Amino acid sequence: MNVLLLDGRLATDEYQELADDAPLPASADAIVVSLERWHRDTHALAATGSKVAVRLANTIDVTTLPDSLLACPMIELWFPAFADGRAYSQARLLRSRLGYRGQIRARGSAVVADQLQSMARVGIDAFVLREDQDSETAARALHGFDLAYQGACDALPRVRQLRRSAFASR
User: Fold this and answer.
1) Euclidean distance between CA atoms 155 and 170, whole angstroms
2) What CATH number is associated with residue 78?
3) How much is the pLDDT for 147?
4) pTM of the predicted model, to two decimals?
5) How many Cα atoms sit within 13 Å of 60 on the Cβ side?
6) What is the pLDDT of residue 6?
């Protein structure tokens, strides 16, 4: 069973993963499909009445996604390895440039406690934890720092701004 952190809290995963070759479920409240399946079965998926989310490989250029996909309630990004930061860029582009307001979910072997705050800073708000990760530790890790050096999608105050404010008040 997957452990899901949503908005910093443990949550029940309402989405059912659907393989590309699996039949459409007769009834499901919410399903996640690959981008390929979404393209292939858009009309059939819409006809199910389910909420449909899309799983993206980290090789996809999110700036080329159709607007109809950006209307999905959730986009799941794949984090396959620590040395591969492409999904960070996808999340940042989805939030900042494309204005995506739905849930962005991180999944993969690199979704671990010490990466969560960095993931949250680029706009990810849901995390499927690896089985070896403690959910309480992971939830605390989301708030490990209260200052940042660089701007991001979050509202953390930046050190440079605080220094300017301190200097201006002298």
Assistant:
1) 25
2) 3.20.20.70
3) 47
4) 0.85
5) 21
6) 93
